[in-house]
C-alpha cells in the first residue's frame, strides 16, 4: 500500500517505521526531516531516543520502503496517517482540503492527532464520503519507551469509524501485526476521541488520589505502602497506576488532562481535573520541601545530587518532568546541583545550558560525591540496588529523599541514612 504519514509526533514515526517494515511504501513530507542523501530524521529528540525506532527507520530507508519527498508526492498516497501536534489542527484542515481538491478518488485518512473531541468529524466533513473518502479516528495509546512494541503487538484497538469499507481497509493494513488485531472496540469517531480523554483522565485521578493518600499518611503515621497493598488486593481497584510519588509528567499525558479539564469546566463547571493538575504541580515539589524541612529551611552552601531527570524511566523526555521544578527550586536557593540520568542528561543540558550551579555527571556515584543529600526522582532500574556503603562514603551527609518509594526505609535507616519517602514510615 502507498501510505503518507503526516506529523512529527512519536505516533507518526512509529507508524512510519512499522508500516514500512511490513512492505508498505511510506512517504513523509521533506520538511518533516529529509537530510542530504535521502536520510529521514525526526525533529523531536524524544522521538529519536525511542528504543529501536531510529534503527527501524534507517532500515526502511535502506530498503527503499521509506522516502521523504515533496508534498505533491505525498498527496498521491491512498492512505494518509495523521499524527500531528495538538496545535496543528489548522495545518491538518488545510491538508485535507488539498486532498479533497484531487477529486473523487477513494482515500482513507487515519487520524491519531489530539485535536479535541469532534475533530475527526470536522475533517470528514471536508471529504466526499459517498466517493469512498473516509476518516477513521485511531486514538494514540502509545507509551514512550514501549511505542514500537505496542504498535507491533496491540492487545486491542479503539477505532472510531462509521464506514464498514474503511474499517476493513484498516484491518487489512494492520493485519501483519501479531497476525491481525483480534479485539477491535468499534465506536463513532467522537466516542473514540472522548474515550482517549476519559482513559487519560482516569489514570490522572488514580495517580492524584494515591498521592493525596500518601501525603495524608505522612500526617497520620501510617505507611502508605501497606495501605497500597491492601487497596490493590481488592479486585475492583487493582494495583495499576497506584504508586505514590513526586508527581506525573510528560507532554501528551498532561495535554490530554488539560484538554479534558477544559471540557469539564466549559460543559459542567467542574474543577475536578483542574484540582488534580494543581495538586500534581505541588506534588512535584514535595522532595524539595522534605529536604527544606530536614535542613530547617536553610539550604545555603549545600550541594544536592539528583538521580533521575526524565519524566519516567525508559525515555529521554523531560517534558513537564518533576526534576525541572526541583532543579529550579534548588537553584533559587543557591544550591549546587549535581545531576545524573541514564538517558535525559543531554536534554537537561540543552534546557539549562552551562550553569555554574549545575554539574552534569556521567556516573550516578559521581553525582553523589560531596553532596549534602541525594534526591531520587525517576525510578530507573539502575537506581534500585545501589551500593549504599559506597554512597555513604561519597555523600557529605547521609540524607536520602526517595521520590518514588523504591527503597526499604528500615534498611536504609539501618545504614545510617536519614530517609524520607512519600507517605513511608
Automatic annotation (TrEMBL):
A Pfam family recorded for this sequence: UDPG_MGDP_dh
Source superkingdom: Bacteria
Keyword Zinc: no
Enzyme Commission no: 1.1.1.22
Record keywords, A-Z: NAD, Oxidoreductase
Domain UDP-glucose/GDP-mannose dehydrogenase C-terminal: 305-409
Enzyme class: oxidoreductase
Keyword check for Cell inner membrane: no
Catalytic activity: UDP-alpha-D-glucose + 2 NAD(+) + H2O = UDP-alpha-D-glucuronate + 2 NADH + 3 H(+)
Protein family per UniProt: Belongs to the UDP-glucose/GDP-mannose dehydrogenase family.
Protein known as: UDP-glucose 6-dehydrogenase
Organism lineage: Bacteria, Pseudomonadati, Pseudomonadota, Gammaproteobacteria, Oceanospirillales
